[in-house]
Write a structure and sequence with these properties.
alpha/beta, 2 domains, about 30% helix, globular
Length: about 475
């Protein structure tokens, strides 16, 4: 009797060779690259006299270092400009397809892959970026790799990988009002900690997960890495197939039907055995917000910051609160906020922007709050313009910018000033992540939007 998990099925189908008492040689179906982790890899290939082995399985875009205003002008920051220029040079030299600035498909790497139909169920997918786990929402094994591994995949289309353990996180029940995918994943991480998934590949299951759209599933898988997991995945179903159907680079016609027949087999067997199983009730999840300097330091927005931490993390708990300028036992509701960032590979898709626009229509942002809305790709940007979303956001006083990673990380011009608070829909709240000395609260797009309107941390349920 089969006892395979979804992870086992996809992994086993890609093992080229197993090294006794060692790692597996894993074949990689799709390699995404960007300007930050690829330059040294290209240099390494050149030094060895190698070409990119599967150019048709390698796709590049510029995202981390790009500005989000005036993208037609030269990049101001010298390092950012250099990295984007090197990517362009390398892709030309090695004949790799690049969606650079100005290209109609340019955008955040983890947004463009799914929206083009390049990301498909049952694949192995890697990128020199930790949030590659996003693509696991399609029932693929997707994870981030380091620069030396980027070079290995470029040269061989294979990777040496130790097989991780498997964990199932099951969420059943019905989500409450004002609870979104971001709240689900922040809730899970707050329960198991920022290291609770270390050594595991996670499969998300249960009725609450199945009820989610593809874009919401991507948000959840995106942040698997924030609990220390190698990646996260969700079994493909009708929602997945409908999302993929008709996308530019997805299989078409009879090929699509044939693919769906295979994709439908990508489910865990009923008696599949996992190394760890966790269960949560959807009804217990509320809108969430972080208070500390890792994504595990989160609370329901109606709750206060914990009074103390466990002994093992007492020092980091105190240090986090000092950095954030907060007190144990404090409520975050009503805290004044000068910056709101809605974007990143976690929450910059058209569905996120539609939700935000639907909420802010006819409202105005607080005078003191700066609001940056960054679409995840040129396609998302165009859809927002076509639907009039950009106008709704601008009328509310929000700044609608051009695609890029933006203020998710302090690697480009969009930085939150030192000491300022930002309610952010991104994935990390580390010290200085959004700029030196910046202080980040992670939340859902609607919590961020409500905060922008009120100028202070707000429970979205007060509006629903």
């Amino acid at each position: 009797m089969n006892r395979s998990t979804l992870f086992d099925k996809v992994w086993d189908a890609h093992v080229v060779e197993h090294i006794p008492d060692g790692p597996d040689i894993l074949y990689i179906d799709q390699h995404y690259i960007h300007e930050v982790t690829s330059p040294q890899a290209f240099t390494g290939l050149e030094r060895r006299g190698l070409s990119v082995f599967r150019k048709d399985r390698t796709l590049a875009t510029a995202d981390h270092n790009v500005p989000t205003i005036d993208q037609h002008l030269p990049i101001k920051e010298a390092l950012s400009r250099h990295q984007v220029e090197k990517l362009t040079e390398n892709c030309e030299k090695f004949n790799v397809e690049l969606f650079g600035l100005g290209h109609k498909y340019q955008g955040i790497v983890h947004v463009i892959g799914p929206e083009l139909g390049v990301t498909l169920p049952g694949m192995t997918i890697v990128c020199g970026d930790s949030h590659t786990s996003t693509h696991g929402a399609f029932g693929s094994i997707a994870f981030g790799i380091g620069t030396s591994e980027v070079e290995m995949v470029m040269g061989t289309q294979c990777l040496l990988q130790n097989r991780p353990k498997t964990m199932k996180i099951e969420i059943n029940g019905e989500l409450g009002k004002g609870v979104y995918a971001k709240d689900i994943i922040l809730y899970i991480i707050s329960k198991i900690s920022a290291s609770g998934g270390t050594g595991y590949f996670v499969e998300y299951a249960g009725s609450a997960i199945r009820s989610l759209s593809m874009e919401a599933r991507m948000t959840i898988c995106n942040m698997s890495i924030e609990m220390g997991a190698r990646g996260g995945m969700i079994a493909p179903d009708e929602t997945t197939f409908e999302y993929i159907k008709g996308r530019e680079r997805a299989p078409q016609g009879a090929d699509f039907d044939e693919a769906v027949a295979y994709w439908s087999s990508l489910v865990s067997d009923i008696d599949a055995e996992y190394d760890e199983v966790l269960e949560f009730k959807a009804e217990e999840i509320e809108p969430m917000i972080t208070y500390g300097t890792n994504p595990g330091m989160g609370v329901k927005i109606s709750e206060n910051i914990p009074v103390s931490a466990t002994d093992s993390s007492k020092e980091s708990f105190t240090k986090s609160l000092e950095y954030m300028g907060l007190e144990p036992g404090q409520s975050l509701l009503g805290k004044p906020i000068n910056y709101v960032f809605i974007g990143s590979c976690t929450n910059s898709r058209i569905e996120d922007l539609r939700e935000v626009a639907g909420f802010v229509k006819g409202k105005k942002k607080a005078e003191h709050t700066n609001v940056w809305i960054i679409p995840g790709s040129k396609q998302v940007e165009q859809a927002a313009i076509d639907e009039g979303i950009d106008q709704v956001l601008k009328e509310a006083g929000f700044e609608f910018r051009q695609p890029g990673c933006s203020a998710c990380l302090g690697m480009n011009e969009d930085k939150v000033p030192k000491g300022e608070y930002c309610v952010s829909t991104s994935n990390r709240n580390f010290e200085g992540r959004q700029g030196p000395g910046a202080r980040t609260f992670l939340a859902s797009p609607l919590t961020a939007a409500a905060t922008a309107i009120n100028g202070q941390i707000t429970d979205i349920r007060d509006y629903l």
